[in-house]
Design brief:
The protein has 48 residues and is mainly α. 83% of the residues lie in helices and 0% in strands. The protein has two helices and no strands. The longest helix has 20 residues. The protein starts with a helix and ends with a helix. The model has no long low-confidence stretch (mean pLDDT 93).
């Protein structure tokens, strides 16, 4: 089953929030960990 437009928009908002948090992280190790987690989640989404 696909997403409605509103569900997709909500998902994009969560993704943007996560990316903003990662970009604003000052600790390079934490930044890398956050970006890795985002990429893992996106990959899992593609595989589902």
């Amino acid at each position: 089953m696909g997403m409605t437009d509103k569900q997709f928009q909500s998902w994009v908002r969560f993704l943007l929030g996560s990316l903003r948090d990662a970009v604003q992280e000052s600790d390079p190790e934490k930044k890398e960990a956050k970006m890795s987690e985002i990429m893992e989640n996106l990959q899992k989404t593609l595989e589902d």
